[in-house]
């Protein structure tokens, strides 16, 4: 008997008798031929905003980066470890994905931390403090607005963070190049945990709710 | 009409009429009271190995980091941006998660790249090359072993990478401290995309298949 | 033959043969006994946001003030003409209304003017400039935020204006007094012209979408 | 659950499933392209005299000011807050409306207050008293007429107030200028709540009932 969390093993047992059992052949083919995901999805670590759940995606569809507050740092070819930049490079240059989606969400803890000027480092390394410095100029400007409520400031910075990540994406030469060739498109999305609403970013950077009634009905959605 | 990928919007529509509709109240409560996930799951970006799918987890259960080859860098309080260390710090110090699981998987593209000595940088920044340097000593030694097959070398390095991440986890003072107090436990797992098999790491670092028949039946699995 | 706009006369003819014909007795009684509206509604002049339409209210229900950007000035007993303060005084002290609702809306032209630092006076009297000075401090702070889009700034100030009006309402002694006695409650609402969504202000000043499914079914809604 | 008046939420629900549902596209276009109302309508706050109801107007048609007794103050470029003058300036200079209609009505509470010499201030600020001072000379002369009944005095002052507002409109240079160019026409109307009758002001300032049978039949009334 292992001390591996029993809850996770029970979940795995459900997966094997349920979804895997239904999609056994799909997993086998995906293992043989390799993955060919259509989308790189950059999302937050938050336990309430799993992209495969929200977009009802099956195996093979989404190449997923998850970090705190769904951020992309700017292009920094400095020889350091860059988890997000490495995943981006692999998704664009090897997998040749068609879309990049940066998905933020409501009530994001990283964003909340960025808006809290009184927050002290969580540990001597202050990793969250450093990481959230990626949106620090916006965080300071938004936090100093005395006319917005705290919740409004939070939503505002969540959306700024998505636009900021998208702007940083464009600083990567390989993203820019494939985008200019029309082989790659970049999108933003924001998920409201409480209501389940999805808002998507339009060409002006604003977030609007998509009209789902206009979608063509797809016989089988979950094909990669 | 937006140019947001129609496939994703169709998936979102499925989510809203299906899972969200069933779990509306759970999402609402999770939004109100905040997340309280039991596990930090460090997984690969690979589109075939989504942890929520494999462990059949609902909203609120898993705080998820996904980067190429599910890696944790060593503790480096150098003031740079560290996506993974920041998420780790937040999960342990703010969310006080009970478990950390590092999950690798078969046919990992990052691991394959690390084992390919002829591979040239994917882009001038060589982000994947730099990132995979985290397992470079092991990769070189395994690749030079002429008695293993390429598939054996691949699986071997996938598992080394999991043990390496776990060893790096222990270099973070806050992980070590909470582990010593018995408030945090750290685990490894490896998922075989082709067969659906899950292997878990035992106390010696070996990967074994758990006996699922020993599991207590849980009335309702998906509670956070 | 008059030069009164034919469009309006045709509309009036529709009213007489339609709604008035159906509600003849109600109009007669309302004329005899006087009005007894339950709500003072302070709304914008905008042609797309008529409160009787949005709340499907019949004659006798809403006592309505409409000015640009649905504003309430602060209590200024200075002997000048105060259109809004006079209506407020009459609604509270004579009609003893139960609720005050300040309703703003999206794409408000007055708010847009307040956010446009380059706007010159519309006429030598600069009446709009002076009127919108009621939200000037907030307008300046929001306009200077370079990380929000223009549409986000617009929505932010529309909501600030509602909270500002509500704060100003509380400066009127008779509003405060009846509120403290529990005889009067004050609410905020924001209407999205494009989507038809109504957002209402919660106790923290945030705007949220009400759950209409929780409403009791009312046999006849439109009774005063 | 919110404490927002349930009656209003129920009305909104009716609106969404009824009128909005029928006119969704019209609202969307009005949001996109902006409003272009043909008429500025200056009406009373009275709950029994909503102009959109009486003229059966749809979204986008009427830019509406509502204050007590449908009054327009004289042109006073004194740097103070002027709700009505600001709306007038915006309607004429920005929206370039074609018509201004001042609509009074029977049994107006503001007019009744103006005719009551024994009335004490409703509150220490005496806002209604100050506001109704706009028709004070007429109110005093009419009230002192011992040969008219009280109901006759009331109707007389209601109509004087309309003419007074129209005279004050002409003191605004931008109204005068556009009127002289033939781009703007100004009208008066009086609505009898009890009977539903609409009386319109003729060129001599008298109120007469329009002959609706002369109206051309309009295929679709509600176009802006």
From TrEMBL, chains A, B, C, D:
Entries under SMART domains matching the protein: Pro_CA
Lineage top rank: taxon: Bacteria
GO terms under biological process: carbon utilization
Spans traversing the lipid bilayer: none
SUPFAM superfamilies named in the record: beta-carbonic anhydrase, cab
Protein's UniProt name: Carbonic anhydrase
Cofactor: Zn(2+)
Signal peptide, first to last residue: none
Gene3D superfamilies, per database record: Carbonic anhydrase
Enzyme Commission no: 4.2.1.1
Lyase as UniProt keyword: yes
UniProt xrefs under PROSITE patterns: PROK_CO2_ANHYDRASE_2 (PS00705)
Keyword DNA-binding: no
Organism for this UniProt entry: Neorhizobium galegae (Rhizobium galegae)
């Amino acid at each position: 008997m292992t001390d591996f969390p029993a809850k996770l093993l029970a979940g795995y047992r459900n997966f094997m008798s349920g979804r895997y059992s239904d999609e056994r052949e799909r997993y086998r083919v995906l293992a043989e031929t390799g993955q060919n995901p259509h989308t790189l999805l950059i999302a937050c670590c938050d336990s309430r905003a799993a992209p495969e759940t929200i977009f009802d995606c099956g195996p093979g569809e989404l190449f997923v980066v998850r970090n705190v507050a769904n951020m992309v740092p700017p292009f920094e070819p400095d020889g350091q470890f860059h988890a997000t930049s490495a995943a981006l490079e692999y998704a664009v240059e090897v997998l040749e994905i068609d879309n990049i989606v940066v998905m933020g969400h409501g009530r994001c803890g990283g964003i909340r931390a960025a808006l809290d000027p009184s927050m002290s480092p969580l540990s001597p390394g202050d990793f969250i403090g450093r990481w959230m410095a990626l949106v620090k100029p916006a965080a300071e400007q938004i936090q100093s607005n005395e006319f917005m409520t705290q919740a409004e400031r939070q939503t505002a910075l969540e959306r700024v963070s998505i636009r900021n990540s998208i702007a940083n994406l464009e600083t990567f030469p390989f993203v820019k190049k494939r985008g200019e060739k029309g082989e790659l498109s970049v999108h933003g999305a924001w998920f409201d945990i409480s209501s389940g609403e999805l808002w998507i970013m339009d060409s002006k950077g604003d977030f609007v709710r998509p009209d789902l009634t206009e979608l063509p009905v797809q016989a089988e959605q979950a094909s990669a």
